[in-house]
Specification:
Layout (H helix, E strand, L loop, with lengths): L10 H25 L9 H17 L10 H27 L1 H4 L3 H22 L2 H39 L15 H9 L2 H31 L6 H27 L1 H19 L9 H22 L2
Length: about 300
Amino acid sequence: PQGAVFAGLTVIGLIAAVGRIFDAVTDPWVASLSDRCTHRLGRRIPFLRASAVPLGIVTILMFVSPVGSQSSVNSFCLLICSLLFYLFMTLYCTPFNALIPVLGRTQKDRVNLSTFISITYFFGTAMAYLVPNIAALFRSSLGYAGSIRMTIAILSVLAVIFMLVPAFAINEKDYDHAEPVRTSAFASLIKTFKNKQFRIFVKSDVLYWIALTLFQTGMPFYITSLMKLDSGRTFVLFAIMTLMSLVFYAPVNILARKMGKRKLVLFAFFFFTAVFVLTAFCGTLGIDGMVWGLIIAALAAIPMAILGILQQ
């Protein structure tokens, strides 16, 4: 259904909000389950193996509406799929992130690991922006909706394969020799948030991810509505931003060891803010839309390279 349905929110907005709130609740719960896991394969790997395939299936189902016309049944099914999507994503990502300090025992190792993870994150996101381009290949035979579903299915299968690689290639027992904890999720949260430095980090991390999500989610709209470009240019500009960001990865890795992470992160926050302000002026000043796109892509690549590595 189009238009606002409650307090100015749309159905899609409500579903997205409920999903995010649900995600925030399940994060510490899954973290506690993983910390207390006594499986023979370790505390993290069993979660990775169990959640990858269900996450791929639910991702596809989010794009499949049971009723062929506008219906509250579709909204309800999308809500359920959204909740399951966030649940399985949490079951995979939370234990996966917990592996980083175990696999990287030194500061240098952890920065390198975070660099590699950030690189694959960018490539994965770039593939997501290819959805319109890939769907166009199937449109004549499957129609608009069918072509989108086929594209999502293909990318989901690829994602599941990639997600299963660390789940089966890493022997967690070779790295993690810690005993499973016995603290409850609630008690653990209380202890964690008593740490003032952690509270400061969490606040900045939340704001950063809100900003990054707004920027990346809004990219197709900046390109089509502000820059007046075809939606197909979204992948082109994102690819340029990704490649330019990769160019900065090596310098960021080196500078983090020489200057420390704090100065670089502060610089990136302020720079990212400046890029946001500049984005608001896209399509003005008599500058061609594609030129605007290249300017934003080039400038955004710098803070995204720094924050993509060091926040992790």
